[in-house]
Each structure stands twice: as structure tokens, then as C-alpha cells.
């Protein structure tokens, strides 16, 4: 009896054990399924997070690209406005030069004739003096009234002064026409020295002596340059911008010095040209002004940056000059400045441009 009871208990235990094993297996399967589901959800969550981070990065990049595009559009707009202004200025300068040139050419062309006529008349008067030493009283009175002796000497001097004056006007008109280069908008070989001299001619009024300071000295150290292929009108704008900045720096320094101090240490601008490696031309324009502070030197070529008061500058002059030299001519524009000693701008462009036609 006892053996039978033990057998029954063993069977029940085995049955219970199998039931428990099946439950354990189900629990393990459910646990594995749950772990798989959790892993899947973690993977999906990480994927979503990565996609969100990537999307955020893309949005930031797009935002930066849009901001850069907006800045570029602002710069392009400003450059277009400045270019239009320079184009309008060039047309106005060319128009004025043309209008002045016509009457000046008429006067200049007739001066030689009037000079010859005057010399002939004075020679005739001298003959009258020689052969009629004692003319009637009325002629003698008129001779004293007009001071004939002074008139004979001064007439020649007046004609000479008129000739010098018209020559000066013709030089100014020629400089204006050459500076504007309205008829030379394309790339062609030109004389760089002529462009610099024409620019200096236009700025002559700022170089002259005043009651506050002596004249600004211009030191030219021109090298032996052949003609250089370039956009002459735009290159002249670069020379103008650099020279105007140099003059502004000198005037700012002179405002802080006495007349005697300026006279003892004269303001000057040195312009030198040379050929580099037989393929490049170098133009250096240096002044002995107050120099550019180190804190702003990195911003000199930035659009809209200016140290001048409101209304005195747009901050686009050097930015456009940099674009003209580097992009339009494939050259270099650098500067070297020492505070309290001065600044030197260096322009380097190829002697031959690949985009220029062969002439």
C-alpha cells in the first residue's frame, strides 16, 4: 500500500514538474520575446533620435547657407550699386571732359594764330617807331594813355600765360577721359603709369598746400614696365580708392600736428612699380600716416566696414578693390601697416590675362 501511494505521489510530482517546466519555458519565451521587442524599440528609438539629430544638423546647415546667401546678396547689391555709381561717374566725367574739350580745343587752336598776329602787329609798331620817331601829338597822347611800351612787353607775357593755361586744361581733360576709360570697358593692354598719373591729376586739389599744411609730396619710383593687360577703368578705381585712403590718413594725422611739425616731417605718398618673375607687375602705394590699428586690420577688406564718420564713406571701396584685383584680374591685394608709421598697399596682377584677346 505504501509503495502504491509513493508511486502516485511520484507521478503527481512528475506531472507538476512538467507543468512547471512548461510554464518556465513559456516565461522564458515571453522574456526573450520581450527582450527582442525592447531591443527593436530601442533600435527604432535610436534611429529616430539619429534622424532627428541629422535633421537638426541639416536645418542648421540650411539656415547657415541661407544666411550666407543673404549676406552674399547684400554684398552683391551693394557692389552693384557702387558699380552703377562708378559707371555713372565715369559717364559724367567723360561727358564733362568732352564738353570742355571742344571750346578749349578751339581756343588752343587759335592761340598760335593770335600769337603770330600779335607779333606781326608789334613788329609793325616797331617799324613805325623807327621810321616815324616824332608822330603827331594825338598819336603821342594815345601812346602815353595806353602805355604802349608796357603793352608791347605784357602782350607777349599774357599770350604765354594763356598758352600755359590752355595746355593745363588740355592735360586735365585728357586725364579725365583716360581715367574714366568709358570706351575701354574690355580687357586690353595699357600703360599702368599713365593710369596712376591720371588718377594723381584728378586728386591734385588734395595734394596742394593749404594755410594749415604744406603740400603732400608724391615720390614716384617707376620701374621699366611694358603694357599690362587689364580692365583699365576698374584698375584706376582701385588706384583712386587706395590713394584717397592714404590722403585721408595723412589729413587725419596732420590735423593733430602744427604747421611746423608737418614741415619738419613732410607728409608723402610713395608709388613704386616693378616686374616680379617676368610675369607679374607690382604696384606699391605707401603713406607715412598714422597707420591702421592692429585691432581692425583683419576687417579692411570686409564689405561695409569703415572707420570714417557717417556720410564720409560707404565701406565698400576696399572691398570692391579687393574683388577687382583678385576676381577680375586673378591678382593679389595685400597691405602692411605699422601704427604711427604708415601703411603700404601692394597690388599684384599678371602682365597677361588669359581672358584678354590677343592684340
From TrEMBL:
Histidine kinase domain segment(s): 95-353
Coiled-coil ranges from the UniProt annotation: 3-44
MF terms (GO), sorted A to Z: kinase activity
Domain of life: Bacteria
Keyword Transcription among UniProt keywords: no
Recorded catalytic activity of this chain's protein: ATP + protein L-histidine = ADP + protein N-phospho-L-histidine
UniProtKB keywords: Coiled coil, Kinase, Phosphoprotein, Transferase, Two-component regulatory system
Name used for this protein in its record: histidine kinase
EC number: 2.7.13.3
Broadest EC class assigned to this enzyme: transferase
Pfam families documented for this protein: HATPase_c
Entry's transmembrane regions: none
Keyword GTP-binding among UniProt keywords: no
Amino acid at each position: 500500500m505504501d509503495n502504491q501511494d509513493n508511486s502516485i505521489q511520484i507521478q503527481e510530482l512528475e506531472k507538476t514538474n512538467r507543468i512547471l517546466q512548461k510554464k518556465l519555458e513559456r516565461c522564458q519565451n515571453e522574456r526573450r520575446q520581450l527582450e527582442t521587442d525592447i531591443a527593436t524599440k530601442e533600435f527604432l528609438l535610436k534611429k529616430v533620435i539619429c534622424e532627428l539629430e541629422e535633421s537638426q544638423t541639416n536645418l542648421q546647415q540650411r539656415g547657415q547657407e541661407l544666411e550666407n546667401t543673404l549676406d552674399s546678396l547684400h554684398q552683391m547689391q551693394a557692389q552693384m550699386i557702387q558699380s552703377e555709381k562708378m559707371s555713372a561717374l565715369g559717364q559724367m566725367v567723360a561727358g564733362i571732359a568732352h564738353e570742355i574739350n571742344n571750346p578749349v580745343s578751339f581756343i588752343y587752336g587759335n592761340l598760335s594764330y593770335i600769337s603770330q598776329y600779335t607779333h606781326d602787329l608789334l613788329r609793325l609798331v616797331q617799324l613805325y617807331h623807327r621810321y616815324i620817331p616824332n608822330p603827331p601829338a594825338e598819336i603821342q597822347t594815345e601812346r602815353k594813355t595806353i602805355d604802349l611800351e608796357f603793352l608791347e612787353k605784357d602782350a607777349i607775357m599774357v599770350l604765354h600765360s594763356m598758352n600755359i593755361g590752355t595746355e593745363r586744361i588740355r592735360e586735365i581733360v585728357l586725364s579725365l577721359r583716360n581715367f574714366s576709360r568709358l570706351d575701354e570697358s574690355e580687357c586690353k593692354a595699357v600703360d599702368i603709369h599713365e593710369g596712376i598719373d591720371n588718377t594723381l591729376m584728378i586728386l591734385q586739389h588734395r595734394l596742394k598746400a593749404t594755410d594749415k599744411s604744406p603740400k603732400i609730396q608724391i615720390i614716384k619710383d617707376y620701374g621699366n614696365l611694358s603694357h599690362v593687360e587689364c580692365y583699365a577703368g576698374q584698375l584706376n578705381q582701385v588706384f583712386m580708392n587706395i590713394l584717397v585712403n592714404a590722403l585721408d590718413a595723412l589729413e587725419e594725422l596732420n590735423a593733430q600736428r602744427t604747421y611746423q611739425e608737418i614741415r619738419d616731417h613732410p607728409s608723402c605718398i610713395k608709388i613704386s612699380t616693378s616686374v616680379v618673375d617676368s610675369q607679374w607687375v607690382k604696384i606699391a602705394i605707401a603713406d607715412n600716416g598714422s597707420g591702421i590699428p592692429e585691432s581692425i586690420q583683419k576687417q579692411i577688406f570686409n564689405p561695409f566696414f569703415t572707420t570714417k564718420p557717417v556720410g564720409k564713406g560707404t565701406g565698400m571701396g576696399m572691398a570692391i578693390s579687393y574683388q577687382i584685383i583678385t576676381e577680375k584680374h586673378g591678382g593679389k591685394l595685400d597691405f602692411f601697416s605699422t601704427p604711427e608709421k604708415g601703411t603700404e598697399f601692394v597690388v599684384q596682377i599678371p602682365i597677361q590675362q588669359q581672358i584678354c584677346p590677343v592684340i
